[in-house]
Amino acid sequence: MASPADHAPFVEQVERLLAVGGPLPIVAAGDPVLRRGTVPYEGQLGPGLLARFVAALRTTMRAAPGVGLAAPQVGVALRIAVVEDPAPVPEEVRMARGRVPVPFRVLVNPSYEPAGPDRAAFFEGCLSVPGWQAVVARHAAVRLRGEDEHGRPLDEVVTGWPARIVQHETDHLDGMLYVDRAEPRSLSSNDAVVERWHQPTPDLAARELGFGLPGRPSGGPQPR
After folding, report:
1. Residue 93 and residue 203: Cα distance in Å, rounded?
2. pTM for this structure?
3. H helix intervals, the chain
4. Is 150 annotated as a binding residue?
5. Is 113 among the catalytic positions?
6. Fold of 4-209
């Protein structure tokens, strides 16, 4: 359990961030805070400051816009993340990706483990790696454990795109970026994804860029 003396640096840091008002600055790849991992949240901010910090994370995520934001992405090394996805996508995308709406929620001290052997690969981006996307193979379902902002326990199985969001944000709390898990040959600018790889699945990108998908070969252009 952290002592009151351990709390002070986090309280001061968050108070400084919130004093500016509006969306918080998002830390970009290359900043060590994104690689150092996080400290478990043990009440360092207190209920009032935590609520204000969560509200600021929500504002920042929506303004970016994004579907998740972890505390290290605003420079705070606490094990806290927020997620929300209205999922405004066509039906064919929803079906292919399992992308369904995720209401706003707070993840405190989250962890995940696979809930089954299946993996799914799709293009993924990150607010801390602006301008780029890459294909990442992730668990199709995970068991999420942790707490909400009120200390109530979380223990549930999450599937589809919501499972991808949970993995992405929890990875941030462990000092990992999506590019660490991505297929290197799939790395594409946002413009290229919009212009070339906007299909519901990354099959065409895999064939043209020469990378494998779960259960399929890699190492060169795939047969058409």
Report:
1. 13
2. 0.93
3. 4-20, 46-63, 91-97, 160-173, 190-195, 203-209
4. no
5. no
6. Peptide Deformylase (3.90.45)
In terms of C-beta density within 10 A (0-12 exposed, 13-18 middle, 19 or more buried), how is residue 138 classed? buried
Let me know: does 169 contact 178? Beta carbons within 8 Å. Answer: no
C-alpha span between 23 and 53 (Å, rounded): 11
pLDDT at 151 > cutoff 70: yes
- Asked if residue 168 belongs to a known ligand binding site, the reply is yes
Residue 139 marked as a ligand binder = no
Question: What phi and psi values does residue 59 have, to the nearest 5 degrees?
Answer: -60, -45
Beta bridge partners of 156: 144
5 pLDDT band, cuts 50/70/90, is: low
- pLDDT tens digits for 132-144? 999 999 999 999 9
CA–CA separation, 173 and 70 (whole Å): 7
Pull the structure tokens for residue 170: 């929890």
Name the active-site residue from 169, 183, 195, 208: 169
Domain boundaries, the chain: 4-209
| φ, ψ of residue 31 in degrees (nearest 5) | -85, 130
Tell me: the pLDDT tens digits for 9-52? 999 999 999 998 899 999 999 999 999 999 999 999 999 999 99
